[in-house]
Amino acid sequence: MQLKKRMEKDSNFQSHLLSEPTLVKTKNVNGWYVKFYAFSVDSEEKQRYRIRVKGSTETEKINDAKIIIKTIKDAFKNGAYISKVKRKDDTSTLPMADKITFKSSFEKYYNFVSQKLKPRSKETYKTWYNTVLSFFQEKGWDKFLISSIQKRHIRAFFDFLVERKGLSNKSYNDFIGFLSGFYNYMIDRGTVEVNLIKGFIKRLKVISGKHTPYTPQQAKSILNHFDSQNDQLSKVFLQFCYYTLARPREELRNLKVGDIGIDTIFFRPANAKSTETSYIVIPKPLEDILQEYKIRDYPSDHYIFSANENSTFLPGPKPTYHKFFYLRIRKALKVLGLTDKDYDLYSWKHTAVCQLFVAGVDIESIRQQCRHSDIKQTIQYLKDLGMIRNSEVKYKFPEI
């Protein structure tokens, strides 16, 4: 009888090895066997397994044992696992399903998707990837065949995110999207048939509340604070945040002198959310700042915001540290007592959008300045900020 058939007779050998297989010699030469310990998918525990060796002589039995030991090692190395449950999958329709481990397929997915990501997004995906893989490795599930991962494994991971990681609802939902994308990737390649995430793991409700807009008075008090600290650099940065509606850390911090045109500002695809070329109009108050500091006169490859010892505004060859302004605005908010809500650096963009809306600027113009691809996105954005324009209802509502 071939070794494969003998293995199938004892159990379906399909998991990772927990101890080196060894030959056990009993007093009765006919009772010799190879012993090893492996993880059982069914019980999720360490189990002992034995395979009887064959041969007419002691030499034949030793040689047979060597073959068995090598076969066991090779099988587990290639992602085999142990389960007494018979598979219901039609392996003829999934030729690769019984050859690929969760870890190897997950690595392929990450390598594929990360090639298209920008640096900041790539960091985020790397964090997601490491979190998932670390959990599966801790459980010993990373070496399971991808076809053997079940809903209970997925549920255990998402319970881990809540119970041990303590993630916010938004971060929890991010992992749903990430792993759902992984399964869609595997489905497209014929490796699995079902997306275990879709329809099984429910998204959690996310309450919008971050980046609360400042009132005009609050915004002025913050600018005045930086004036009192002789922090010209931070003040100009916040003014740019307000007038450009740019994302502070990714876009504005990496803005260069050469990106400032006569009437528009260019945002490079490498720093922007969209991969498309985008421009915004330079508002009159921002043009006054450009003229006051003669920003266009500096070398085109200089970063508009470059750190220096005395915090004066002076474009330079290097951009500021990515948390430079975040830490300064956080400190200022604490001094001013603005810590009761979700005020932060990004709030300046939301403040600007609200002020444009209140001033009566049409939504299409706001869309262009926000660089939204669709006006529906702008409408939803304004709605999330509580901006509703309906003067008919406001001024003509019948009194009861």
UniProtKB/TrEMBL annotation:
InterPro entries tied to this protein: CB, DNA_brk_join_enz, Integrase-like_cat_sf, Integrase_catalytic, Integrase_recombinase_N, Integrase_SAM-like_N, Tyrosine_recombinase_XerCD
Q: Name one Pfam family in it.
A: Phage_int_SAM_4
Q: Note whether Hydrolase occurs among the keywords.
A: no
Do the record's keywords include DNA-binding? yes
Domain Core-binding (CB): from-to ranges: 100-187
Question: Which keywords does UniProt give here?
Answer: DNA integration, DNA recombination, DNA-binding
Q: Which residues form the Tyr recombinase domain?
A: 209-395
Give the PANTHER family listed for this entry.
INTEGRASE_RECOMBINASE PROTEIN MJ0367-RELATED, PHAGE INTEGRASE-RELATED
Q: Which family does it belong to?
A: Belongs to the 'phage' integrase family.
Protein's name in the database:
Tyrosine-type recombinase/integrase
